[in-house]
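Lay summary

Proteins are chains of building blocks that fold into shapes. Our project writes down both the chain and a compact code for its shape. Here are two examples, one after the other.
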Amino acid sequence: MPKFKLFANKKGAADQKRNNQYVKFARQIYVEAKKGGPDPNANLKLKAIIANARAINMPLDNIERAIKKATDTGNADDYEEIRYEGYGPGGVAVIVECLSDNRNRTAADVRAIFNKRGGNLGETGSVSFMFDKKGVIVIDREKFSVDEDTILMQALEAGAEDVIINDDSFEVHTHPHELDQVKSRLEAEGYTFENASVQWIPQNTVKISGDDAAKMLKMMEAFEENDDVQNVYANFEIDDEEMEKLMA
């Protein structure tokens, strides 16, 4: 295949993924603006969602449209938050968070994604006990010339529980109810964030490879492509060598 065709395919896939993210953020913004009011300064949860959307370069027009839609008294769209839990191939635990205006459709879609990729949908609570709910603040290391000891000290003083050091980022973990407080204090120190949200963090990971790994990645991709699915969390681990084989 010519190189330009490969590039076009990759660009098309990247564009589609970004558009999917915009759709999900627009839905979150709509729901939160309708629930807590359209003014981000008076609605901190809305403000945080907008900040996360802007971090992936979501256009302001899209954000403003979602807020305007929420304030339109003639708009009857109503979404509910639903959490699904189940298992992927290799015994991987999976949590799927959705915003849906049709519970039956969403349940059928989620079940089909589990079944088609060698998994199964479980009952609520069947896997969430294997995760901890945490506030997670992601700081891009390239944007700030700060050493590990300094960011750890600043985060702990701001009220964080821990800092995970990655090659390209600092992950500040907080109690879910302390997320806004820690975020505000780190902002006062001059930091900006790639993302700040409440997430499900696995207590332990399951190492998978071969067919299980290939199916699990396809399952994650299918969930991410579904408009009703806002977030998906799983406790699998794939080593670098195996990932290279899968991506070849």
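And here is the second example, written the same way.
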Amino acid sequence: MFTRVANFCRKVLNRESVETAPEDRRPLTIIPRDQHSISRKEISENALKVLYRLNKAGYEAYLVGGGVRDLLLGKKPKDFDITTSATPEQMRKLFRNCRLVGRRFRLAHVMFGPEIIEVATFRGHHQVLEPEEGAAGAGHNGMLLRDNIFGSIEEDAQRRDFSVNSLYYSVADFTLRDYTGGLKDLREGTISLIGDPETRYREDPVRMLRAVRFAAKLDMTISRETAEPIPRLAALLHDIPPARLFEEALKLLQAGYGEATYRLLCEYQLFQPLFPLISRNFTEHGDSYMEQMVIRVLANTDQRLRNDMRVNPAFLFAAMLWYPLLEHAQKLTQESGLSYFDAFSLAMNDILDEQCRTLAIPKRLTALMRDMWQLQLRLSRRQGKRAHKLMEHPKFRAAYDLLTLRADVENNAELQRLSRWWGEFQVAAPPRQKNMLTTLGDDAPARARPRRPRRRAPNRDNA
């Protein structure tokens, strides 16, 4: 995977141009055009427009971050980010199609139809000021709450998270600039945090999730220094707003490498702050139905994304939380004497409420999750017109896919027969469907959910 980068970096390290850097920082490496593989043909035309206009207006401007990293790895970048000496207000004056976003750090979004080019001003070294001074602020755990401190490109490089994301490409002279040893880490396949890891994680605990995400995405290894503080600082994620963690969870689990990411999250004890309902039921050997379901649904999601198929986060979360839901419903049934249907409905509320305390799953998704869960109770009822009515439900297909996953995970003959029946029924011609319904009789599989317990007789003595 890294052959192209390795050959390129060996060439660079032998012929690099080095400028003096301040103490405790790595020397700046400038790679001229004939010694790197980035071409303007591979860069978005809209990103080039922004870079050229900033340069023409007298500002420094560079392509930076994941776009540069992916170009060097021979990958197609998902987006192109720019950093510049222009302030957000100067950006707004320069581009009519610009809007400013962000509170923690102000960014400029330059809009080109569906494509958004994100432009950030060079960041400076933050100072924790008094609240009324307003430029920077930190919480009690050292987490940065506001960070609108601007600086030079050298300071900006030190403020970025990982060295492989701190490479700068200039359209002014077509050079590549490396301030933090990112080329070496790219060659060696290493994710290294810039600066003191514990300090940087306390500034923004989400960086721990980003380290895992990049390691899984790029098939790299997290360096020892970068990895060491993660398990003992994982609890800092509890300070992150649930809405932000939800967005991070989608990036982690629904980007095509969810299974590998999941294993790394467990290794570094980062899964528990995201999914406490699941992690509290982990087993010693990871062989419970719940753990097998998580691995299977993530592997299936990865496969669908590789095949350019659509994925829905509601299905992912519904599958991951199915067994915690089932266990809680059975517990409510035993403790309260409620019918299973009523206990199941209450359990859905409890499970979603608890999960949303850590990940703010939007209501549009929790509504779909409820549909998929409730349909699991109905898929075994196929007599009469019920089968056709079930197939008309908007979430029938998703519910059927969940049923199939359950049958595979549990290796349950009854669930497997039910799954096969629905698979055949969906594609059968009407005469065949009628015959399948007629011949159900005594051959119909058992109910796909636990039987409702008998209602307990009222205690006459306490009536």
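What can we say about the second shape? The first strand starts at residue 17 and ends at 19.
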